[in-house]
Design goal:
heterodimer, A: about 90 residues, mainly alpha, B: mainly alpha, Four Helix Bundle (Hemerythrin (Met), subunit A), 7 helices, about 0% strand, elongated
Chain lengths: ~90, ~200
Amino acid sequence: MSEQHEHIVSYKLFAIVWSALLLLTGITIWVAQYNLGALNIWVALAIASLKSGLVVSFFMHMKYEQPLFKIALISTLVILAIFIGFTFFDVLYR
Amino acid sequence: MSEHVHKDYTGAKFGMWLFLFTEVLLFGGLFVLYAVYLQRYPQEFISAGSELDVRFGGGNTLVLLTSSLFVAMSITALRRGQKTLCQGLLAGTIVSAAIFMVNKFFEWSAKIHHGIYPGSPHMSEIAPGESVFFSIYYITTGLHGIHVVVGALIIAWTMFKIKAGSVNAGDWVVLENAGLYWHLVDLIWIFIFPLYYLILH
């Protein structure tokens, strides 16, 4: 099986992704100056997750990988969620 | 040596990804620690967090995002046969890593100058929640800083392989994997920055 013809991502697309990442960084700094109570941390995490999604999909080529890679990534994120979630079952209801 | 050497690109890349998943869980543990103590000491985390300088954190965010762009573009450059451009982009990444570490040096120096470092007399006087914040801050950004240095060394090594020609337009998986490692360093910082530097309310 030849894998020499994998997708080559264009400079232009990388530049667009980078611009989006800078914009999202600006938004997260801007939002942080407002007091939204507990919502602040969730907004920060949502923006960070969005930025991560862009980095993983384009810079790390996950968008162009075989399903095996995507399944492995999702499995890891589920394990991480269980790790965090189960810790908080204890922490929150102690 | 003209004999055919078997190359398993999918296997090589998947192996790298599996390693990165263990890194995610390693840093995940530190983020769990952060989350648990944030829940226990919300006010102390805010007052301690406001002592971190957003300009250092924001500047380093800019540096890492841009270095990630360089690495991503270097793969495109190599595969299109633009070897000089590829090397230039990778050199730019190493320069970015150096700028990041110099920033970190000044940032940590200022903190240490103010008596904020693990085990300092000042740390035992401030509120327990604040000293916990700074302890987790040092271990998380310290471990991340080690990753920045290791990432820069891996990229330097890859540059030598490109120069020697063993990594080239038809055989680039070493650069791909070095890039994946570098992007992980960027990913971790994407979470460190808002959680430590932007926790103002």
